Amino acid sequence: MGVETTISHDKYFVCLYPVAMGLEEGAPLWRQTSATPTLSRSNSSNIKELSYLQYLKQKIKPSEGPPYSHVCQVGDPVLRVRAAEVEPGAVLGEEVQRVINTLVKVMRKVECMGLSAPQIGVPMRILAMEYPERMLKDIPPTIRQARGLVPIPLRVFINPQLRICDSRQAVFLEGCESISGFAACVPRYHSVEIAGLNEKAEAVTWQVSGWPARIVQHEMDHMDGVLYTDRMDSRTFINVRWEEYQMTSATPVLSRARSSDAGFVAYLRHLKRKYMGAKDPPYNHACQVGHPVLRSRAAEVEPGAVLGEEVQKVISTLVKVMRKRECVGLSAPQIGVPMRIFVAEYTERMLEQTSPVHREACDLAVFPLRVFINPRLRVCDSRTVTLVEACESIAGFAASVPRNLAVEVSGEKTPTWVPCGNALILLDEWSEKEEEWASNILDNGLNERAEPVTWQVSGWPARILQHEMDHLDGVLYIDRMDRCTFTNRCWEEHNK
Ligand SMILES: [Zn+2]
Ligand SMILES: [Zn+2]
């Protein structure tokens, strides 16, 4: 998991908002983002400067406000409000017609089967559906039949009402353009009826079953600020490209080889990986959600094997990837190894990136590298604290997660490893500062035979331990999160 320090998207992103991002009371629920692009924008250092001509153009023709020609991403408050009824008399008016046209245009552009007005930044009760024959062509007949896939001509519903006709439920993998690149299993009613006005302000009713019924229910949810992640079986949530990710990030060296001075060395490394089976775990990247290794219970490490080459390689790779990704904790399953090992570290540099307010509110404190093997967790204070948390295996997202206030961790004892609170630290990895810290522990009752003492922590480190411990049992933070806080960390940039 990582640590977040500010609400912006800086490197040390990752954690620590005591409130649901973007959902504070009193915050504007949606904004005419670019209706008034101003000169102050061009003065801002982190936003691309506008030329005076561009400025004039935007001023005369504000082009970026909703309805957007893109799909808003989860985290955008517009996706979480109850959309407003459309005045029947306004349906044929310019504003509503423009929303409908844009909705259909965007739906066709991104090739999805349904889209709702909130997804293009307009909190109105309007949705569109279409499933052309041409998109159906690539789907094997067995899947068509199993899912009840049939072509749908373009349909627009304004102020739609839903009635359940058959309350039996079917569970299928479902995605949403507002949570782009992910999918999860969601139960939906078998058959429903939707009624409302169409784009010509005529009353229409449509009774559907199978896949179209699923789309209707999905789009109806958007009218009330509900996303499929609120209804999903979180254990089925996947990054649809997790496999691709394995392939591409396992061979990043070749692309680097072409552009760097050390090209030849990198090329050799690439060849080595290619021909020596270096794609096997431990990986030099974090596996993404969808990889089965993240969902299995990791195996205990034989205490006698801790000093062996295999386990040592896992540990050193974990530390390397954790530091490369600048996150505060990483578990072996995340690098493709289902063993009960995790590492954690919170450096001075990471702490410096946080604001004093966050430091205090979140109990942030530096701690040196720690390696935990076969750790066991005991809850010491079961009061819960809810803060925003992220995970390298669900890259780009975050959510509020309740965790116990204080925990205690204990791990295996082995020679040449120094137990720290019963967990193990490899002596080689220690810096001077860490030794000093260790001597404090020794002074506090740890003898040289390394009799166990307990590492009992509260606040921030306790959260990290619980997050990483979860990984060892195939649990991710999305299984525990407050679902309405699940957020794409770049949703704001997406609207710019
Ligand atoms: Zn959707
Ligand atoms: Zn994680």
What is the CATH topology classification name of the largest domain?
A: Peptide Deformylase
Tell me the span between the first and last alpha carbons. Answer: 28 Å
Mean pLDDT: 78
Main pleated-sheet profile = 6 strands, antiparallel
State the share of residues found in helices, binned by percent.
25-40%
Rg over CA atoms: 26 Å
Helical stretch count?
Answer: 16
Structural class: alpha+beta
Low-confidence stretches: 3-50, 250-262, 413-423, 427-433, 437-453
Keywords: Hydrolase, Metal-binding, Protein biosynthesis
GO molecular function, one term: peptide deformylase activity
Function: Removes the formyl group from the N-terminal Met of newly synthesized proteins.
Catalytic activity: N-terminal N-formyl-L-methionyl-[peptide] + H2O = N-terminal L-methionyl-[peptide] + formate
What does this structure look like?
Helices cover 29% and strands 23% of the residues. With 496 residues, it is of the alpha+beta class. The strands form 4 sheets. Strands 1, 2, 3, 4, 5 and 6 form a 6-stranded antiparallel sheet that branches. The chain starts with 38 loop residues before the first helix and ends with a helix. Keywords: Hydrolase, Metal-binding, Protein biosynthesis. This is Peptide deformylase. It is an enzyme of class 3 (hydrolase).
